[in-house]
Amino acid sequence: MKIFRRAQFLLGLLALLLGTSLLLIGAGRGLPPPVPHGKYVVYVGTYTAKTASKGIYSYGFDATTGKLTPMGLVAETTNPSFLALHPNGRFLYAVNEVGDYQGQKSGAVSAFAIDPASGKLTLLNQMATRGADPCYVSLDKTGHHVLVANYNGGSVIVFPVLADGRLGEATAFVQHQGHSVNPQRQQGPHAHMIELAPQGNFALTADLGLDELLIYRFDAAKGSLAANEPPYAKGTPGAGPRHFAFDPSGQFVYLLSEMASSVTTFSYQAAKGVLDNIQTVSALPKDFGGQNSAAEIAVHPSGRFLYTSNRGHNSIAILAIDPQKGTLTPVAQVPTGGKIPRNFAIDPSGSYLLAANQNSDNIVVFKIDSASGMLTPTGDVLAIPSPVCIVFRAEGETR
C-alpha cells in the first residue's frame, strides 16, 4: 500500500512539473494564455460628419453564441474614428478626427471613464493633438501613456495618463518630414498608426506618405520618443503603409500597405528595434482588377492566421502564417456583407470576427474556423451609422 501511494505521489508530482514546464515554454515563446469564452461590451467608434451617427455606440457580445445586442449611444462626441481601452478596463480613449480644434490646425483625443455596470462613458477631458485629423490611438501595457498618430498633421504625440484617467500635457511630439512617389497621396507625411512593440521599449509608426515604418526608442518613465538606429524600415515606393500587427511571439511584424493592398513580413529584433524585410504578398485575388484600398490587419490569437480588410473588393483576406519562418500564404477572401470594411476585430476568445462596413452602415458577425481560419457569416447583422473601429471589453472588467 505504501509503495502504491508513493507511486501515486510521484506520478502526481511528475504531472505537475510537466504542466508547469509547458506553461513556461509557452510563456517563453510569447504565446498568449487561453482566453475563456465570456460576455463583453463592444465599443464602436464612428464618423459623425455628414452621417446620422452621434458618437460612440456599444453592444453586448456573448462569445459563446456570437450574438450582438445593441446597448445604444454611450458618448456623444465628434468623429471618434479610433478607440483604445485602458488595460485596467476603467477608461476608454478616442481620437476626434478633425482638422480644426479650438482654432488650431489640430485634432483632439478624448478620455472617458467607463461605468462598470452599464458600460456608459463619461468624458473626463480632451487634449489637442497638435496635428490635423488624428486617426489612431493606443496605450502602453502599463496604461501610463496614450500615443496618437495625426494623419494630415504627419506627426505623433504622447500623453501621460493621470491617476483618474485624464490626459496630462504631452511628453513627446515628433513631426515627420518628407514625401514619397505618389503626388496625390504622398505629397507629405501621413502618420497612420503608432503602437508599442510587445516589450514596450520601442514604438513603431506606419507613415503612408513616407512609405516608411518608423522606429522610436520609447522611455516608459519619461514618455519620450527618440529616433532609433536605423530610424525606419523602408516600404515599397507608392505602397502607402497603413497599419501593422505583431505575431504572438513578437518575432514578426506584418505591415499592411493601403495603396498597394499588400502585406509585408518583417523579422523583428526586439533588443535593438530592428526590422528585416522577409516577404511581401497581395491581400487581393490574382484576377481582381478593380480599385481597392486596404484598411485593417490583425493576427489571430493562435498565431496561425492573419486577416486584412479590403475596401473596394469588400472582403476580409485570410492568410496562413508559417510558425517558424513567419511567412504568409494566401488562403481566401471572404465577402464582408457590406461596403467599405474599414475595420474589424477578433473577439478575445478567437472564435468570432466582427466586420465594420463603413459605407453600408452595418456590422457583420463571422464565425472563425480554428483549423482553417475560414470565416462563415453567422447571420447576425446590426445596423449602425458609419462604423469605423471596434474594441472589446470584458463585461464588468476593472483591475
Task: Describe the fold and architecture.
The protein has 399 residues and is mainly beta. The protein has a single domain, classed as YVTN repeat-like/Quinoprotein amine dehydrogenase (Methylamine Dehydrogenase, Chain H), CATH 2.130.10.10. The chain has one helix spanning 2-28; strands spanning 39-46, 55-62, 67-76, 82-85, 91-96, 108-114, 121-128, 134-139, 145-150, 155-160, 172-175, 191-196, 202-207, 212-219, 224-234, 241-246, 252-257, 262-269, 274-282, 293-299, 305-311, 315-321, 328-335, 341-346, 352-357, 362-368, 375-383, 387-394. The strands form seven sheets. A four-stranded antiparallel sheet has the order 3-2-1-28, with no helix packed on it. A four-stranded antiparallel sheet has the order 4-5-6-7, with no helix packed on it. A four-stranded antiparallel sheet has the order 8-9-10-11, with no helix packed on it. The longest helix has 27 residues, at 2-28.
Topology diagram in text:
Elements: H1 2-28, E1 39-46, E2 55-62, E3 67-76, E4 82-85, E5 91-96, E6 108-114, E7 121-128, E8 134-139, E9 145-150, E10 155-160, E11 172-175, E12 191-196, E13 202-207, E14 212-219, E15 224-234, E16 241-246, E17 252-257, E18 262-269, E19 274-282, E20 293-299, E21 305-311, E22 315-321, E23 328-335, E24 341-346, E25 352-357, E26 362-368, E27 375-383, E28 387-394
Antiparallel strand pairs: 1-2, 1-28, 2-3, 4-5, 5-6, 6-7, 8-9, 9-10, 10-11, 12-13, 13-14, 14-15, 16-17, 17-18, 18-19, 20-21, 21-22, 22-23, 24-25, 25-26, 26-27
